[in-house]
Amino acid sequence: MHALWQQFDQLGTEMIVTKAGRRMFPTFQVRISGMDPSAEYVLLMDFIPVDYKRYRYAFHSSSWLVAGRADVAAPSRMHFHPDSPARGAQWMKQTVSFDTLKLTNNLLDDNGHMILNSMHRYQPRFHVVYVDPDPNSHLNAFRNFCSFSFLETRFIAVTAYQNHRITQLKIASNPFAKGFRTTEPQDWVSNSTALTVWHPPEGKAEHHTAKGQRQWDINSSSTQEDTNLQQVEHCGLFQHCKDSVGYNTERKNSDGLLAPFLPLPSCWDCPGSSQDRGNL
Q1: Are 12 and 161 within 8 A, CB to CB?
Q2: What is the pLDDT of residues 14-50, one digit of tens each?
Q3: Greatest Cα pair distance in the chain
Q4: Which class does domain 2-179 fall in?
Q5: Three-state DSSP state, 141
Q6: Which segments of the chain does DSSP mark as H helices, in order?
Q7: In what order do the strands lie in the sheet with 22-23?
Q8: Would you state the pLDDT for residue 161?
Q9: What does the domain layout of the chain look like in residue ranges?
Q10: How far apart (Å, rounded) are the C-alpha atoms in residues 55 and 96?
């Protein structure tokens, strides 16, 4: 997943930490070579602070700034791959994925999750430990392992995403986030085309009741609904639009990206007569 990690790294990767524990995305995955096929190895991971600083996100400049000294670090933990130990032949024949690893900010966690401080930057580390069958293996412990760090996997731990572009990239890339998608991913980064904006049919005026419901006044001279869609050029910071499946979204043209929202069905798309729609 090197290419995906690089995309996130260019934006400043953020990882959610929760009390119950949250899985990482992108998932840490590696391919291994050079092992002794018949020897056994243990694979594990840990996380170390990149520096001794605490950060905050500046929305006006869309960047991370140093907010002060780092909080006291939690006791370091190691996450063992659940298939450990295993022979080198097994590790090398397929991609090794740490998809069960979870991040938490609960200092009292007793589930074995990796404890991190929110608003701190971390570097994941990957370790390969050779299971030495020699009775005096402890004498060679200093050379029976290898450690690897990949700079593109650095991230800032957060309790909620700060950079909206990180949110959009995670929704577009994570197969478990399909419910949050309102358009095709390739349409999210395009701002060169005109937006489709819906207007009430001619002869009808939309009113909002005290409860926020829509009611329609129908001009007696209008015999049919005018459902033409007006194409307008993208202007203003945000514009409401109606996409091809009848969901409401918002587009932002400052960097050409959509600000995704949960899809809300519109009463304009409900079947039935205008009188029925007024009762929605």
Answers
A1: no
A2: 999 999 999 999 999 999 999 999 999 999 999 999 9
A3: 97
A4: mainly beta
A5: helix
A6: 2-11, 88-92, 164-173, 274-278
A7: 22-23, 102-104, 114-115
A8: 96
A9: 2-179, 183-278
A10: 32
Q: Which burial class, exposed, middle or buried, applies to 103 when counting CB atoms under 10 A from its CB (0-12, 13-18, 19+)?
A: buried
**H or E element that contains 168:** helix 164-173
Query: 93-149 pLDDT, tens per residue?
Result: 999 999 999 999 999 999 999 999 999 999 999 999 999 998 888 888 888 999 999
Amino acid at 153: T
3-state secondary structure of 210: coil
Q: From the centroid of its chain, how far is CA 224?
A: 45
Closest residue by Cα to residue 112 from 76, 84, 143, 149: 76
90: three-class secondary structure by DSSP: helix
Classify residue 106 by its DSSP letter: -
Average pLDDT over every residue of 214-243:
39
Hunting for tokens 């991190």 — which residue is that?
116
* CA dihedral over 109, 114, 116, 118, signed as positive or negative: negative
The model carries a pTM of 0.64
